[in-house]
Each structure stands twice: as C-alpha cells, then as structure tokens.
Q: What sequence folds into this?
C-alpha cells in the first residue's frame, strides 16, 4: 500500500482536482484505490457526486475517531471514498499530542485492501495536514505557474519538513511539485518553468496539466478525466501524470495503456 497526500496552503491551485483525477485514473488502471477527504469543505464528494451526508458509509471523521469498523463508500469498481464534511473541523486545530490519530487508525485491516490511498487536505497548514503527512509515504504539492507560487511551494515544503521532524514515525518522501493550470501562451511561462527547474531539479514533475475548460467544468458535471474523450488533452496529460507517479512510487511500472474498467 502506498499513501500519497496532496498538500498546499494556497487555495485555487487544483489540489482537489488533482487528487480526484489521479485516484480515478489509478482505479481505471485496475489499481484498488481509496480517496480520503480531510477538507471540511468536502469538495471531493461534490466532485464525485457522492452524498457525504447520508451516514450509510464511513467517513474520514470515523477514521480520526479510530472507529474499529470502517466501511468506505464506493464510487466505481476500484475506487472507494472516505468523505468529509464541516464536522471534521474540530480536528483542524488539535495539537498532535500522544501520537497521530491517523497513524493509529491506519492499523485498521480494511485499509490494507488498497494498493493506493490518496489524501486530499484543506488549503491550510494545520493539524489535519499534519495528520495526513503522518501516514503518508509520499506528498505532492500542486502549484500554478505564477511568480508567487514559488513562495507557496517553499512554505509547504517547510511545513512538511517540520511535521516530519516532530511526529514520531512520520517519514513521507517529497514526490514533487505538480504544475497545474498551465497556459504556454503566456509570455512568462517559459521563464517561470526554467526558474522552477533550477530550484527544484528533479522534484518538478515532468508532466504538467494544462488549463482547460473541461477540467474547470468537470466538478459541475461530476466528470473526471476518465469520462473525457480519448483525444482529450486533459485525459492524455492525466494518464501520463499517473504513469509518472506510479513509476516514482514503484507501482505497476509496466502500465502502458489506459483501460476504462470503472464498472
């Protein structure tokens, strides 16, 4: 099992979009995937058209409360969810004293059924983000191709570094920075990417995600890139991104083709 958190204290960088679409692509590769939403806004559920208020299935709050029976909701054949809602906010400012709640919860046998667990986090540097990092094998930082993004990436990296140093048994590896919502027509794009490549070297992911209307409209129609046409630029980019990440974490490195086996 590999656990990947997506973190960034800046909003609007495509964090939830990346979490949902990567999880969707992984599951369509036949990889049993769980997506955990730790954001009080619950945008993962909204994106996936999942009823986060039904109470029929377990949610991320149950995980943080270390309930022994965890029953994730099902999105597709290989994609499950532990949703979130505003009630999770009570954990957002708690100090992690006496050990991480999620580290204890991750001993639950149900979670061992998954090959990949994706964790979406709130756009803050708070206890919920620390909880996510405490159980992660890797963390990913999305950023927009803007000048101020460099500062945001540095802040997120510093927060992760402090978290790893202060929480027992927390040792996630920095997977890299994902450039989101890029527009190569902008005159500053090439210069910005060059600066990031200089600063981050191999920690800037090779695959970059373009700014497209279909990605922006995806949550409104409850569609991930899996639902897009095969020639869709967004779909092609996300499949390449998923392959790049899977190779970095050592899962299914030989995957070469996308297969739609959601149902």
A:
């Amino acid at each position: 099992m590999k656990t990947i958190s997506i973190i960034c204290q800046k909003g609007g960088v495509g964090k939830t979009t990346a979490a949902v679409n990567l999880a969707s692509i992984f599951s369509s590769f036949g990889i049993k995937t769980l997506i955990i939403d730790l954001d009080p806004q619950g945008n993962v559920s909204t994106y996936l058209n999942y009823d986060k208020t039904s109470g029929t299935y377990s949610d991320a709050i149950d995980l943080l409360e270390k309930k022994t029976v965890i029953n994730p909701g099902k999105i597709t054949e290989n994609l499950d969810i532990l949703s979130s809602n505003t009630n999770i906010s009570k954990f957002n400012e708690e100090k992690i004293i006496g050990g991480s709640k999620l580290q204890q919860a991750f001993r639950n046998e149900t979670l061992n059924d998954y090959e990949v667990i994706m964790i979406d986090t709130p756009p803050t540097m708070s206890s919920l983000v620390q909880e996510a990092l405490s159980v992660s094998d890797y963390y990913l930082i999305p950023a927009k191709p803007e000048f101020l993004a460099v500062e945001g990436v540095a802040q997120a990296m510093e927060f992760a570094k402090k978290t790893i140093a202060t929480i027992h048994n927390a040792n996630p590896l920095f997977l890299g920075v994902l450039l989101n919502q890029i527009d190569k027509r902008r005159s500053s794009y090439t210069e910005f990417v060059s600066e990031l490549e200089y600063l981050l070297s191999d920690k800037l992911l090779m695959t970059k995600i373009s700014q497209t209307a279909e990605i922006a409209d995806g949550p409104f129609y409850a569609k991930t890139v899996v639902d897009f046409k095969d020639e869709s630029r967004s779909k092609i980019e996300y499949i390449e991104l998923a392959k790049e990440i899977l190779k970095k974490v050592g899962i299914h490195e030989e995957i070469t083709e996308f297969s739609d086996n959601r149902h």
